């Protein structure tokens, strides 16, 4: 039996859209309340033993945390002094989730105000006005969390061989992908793009991640890319053999389908072979100092 649960996109696409909007609201709270960090690291969510969490967010002389529990399907907001508020999410509309989240924050005397509309999402309806019924398959959400837990462990193993600057394992709630990004240490400011793009791509990176699929690519997959993209990056030989190169936004994107990894004898080994082949090949082509960046004690 695979250590990864099945995640057929078409079976939970509507639930995924619901979950994505719920998590955007939580992520926007962290964006608003947390001190700013480089490359937008202050906006992300993190895998938790029961779901996804903001981690501790400093607030005045205290702090708070928002946990989206994907086993009991509730949101729990806790302060440093132990006071907590919670609410169940099953069956809620986006507007009802918004009201429940911010009324609990007010009850806890954490009156955070966000831009109350989706960001870079196919829904453009402001959160407080979105009263449409929403699908919520509890089992699918729990399966997604179980996949994130296993993938996060593999991504943590991937992180251990690198001594340079790199992100934690973190989920970007706008694009809904779990990411680890490595930096060469060399600046390479992005020309053009939005202010957020310029902040994200101020330095050379090689980034890997997992996303659960969307309408343009209707299955979950692992991916990798480099910025700036080295010449002939799509000629790098990827591992395992069923990994392949695709094109996204005019650039080369390495892909390993989740289902191919899930059906392997050792899914974690299969994923690591993909991540390492992408990183090593891209780093060579981009002339990164591989020896200096390698953890020598491993």
TrEMBL record:
InterPro entries: DUF5996
Superkingdom, taxonomy of origin: Bacteria
A UniProt-annotated Pfam family: DUF5996
Protein name: DUF5996 family protein
Organism: Roseibium porphyridii
């Amino acid at each position: 039996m695979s250590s990864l649960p099945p995640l057929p996109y078409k079976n939970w696409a509507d639930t995924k859209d619901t979950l994505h909007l719920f998590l955007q609201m939580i992520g926007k709270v962290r964006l608003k309340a947390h001190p700013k960090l480089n490359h937008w690291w202050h906006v992300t969510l993190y895998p938790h033993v029961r779901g996804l969490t903001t981690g501790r967010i400093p607030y005045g002389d205290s702090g708070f945390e928002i946990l989206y529990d994907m086993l009991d399907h509730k949101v729990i907001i806790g302060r440093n002094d132990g006071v907590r508020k919670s609410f169940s999410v099953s069956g809620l509309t986006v507007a009802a989730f918004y009201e429940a989240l911010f009324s609990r924050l007010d009850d806890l005397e954490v009156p955070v105000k966000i831009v109350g509309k989706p960001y870079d999402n196919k829904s453009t309806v402001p959160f407080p006005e979105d009263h449409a019924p929403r699908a919520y398959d509890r089992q699918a959400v729990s399966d997604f969390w179980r996949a994130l837990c296993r993938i996060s462990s593999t991504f943590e193993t991937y992180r251990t061989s690198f001594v340079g600057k790199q992100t934690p394992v973190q989920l970007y709630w706008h694009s809904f992908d779990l990411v680890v990004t490595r930096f060469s240490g060399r600046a390479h400011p992005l020309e053009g793009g939005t202010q957020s793009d310029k902040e994200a791509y101020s330095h050379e990176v090689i980034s890997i991640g997992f996303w659960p699929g969307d309408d343009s690519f209707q299955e979950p997959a692992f991916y990798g890319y480099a910025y700036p993209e080295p010449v002939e990056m799509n000629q790098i030989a990827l591992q395992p053999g069923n990994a392949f190169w695709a094109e996204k936004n005019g650039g080369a994107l390495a892909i390993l389908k989740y289902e191919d990894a899930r059906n392997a004898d050792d899914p974690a080994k299969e994923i690591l072979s993909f991540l390492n082949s992408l990183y090593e090949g891209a780093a060579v082509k981009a002339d990164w100092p591989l020896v200096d960046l390698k953890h020598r004690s491993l």
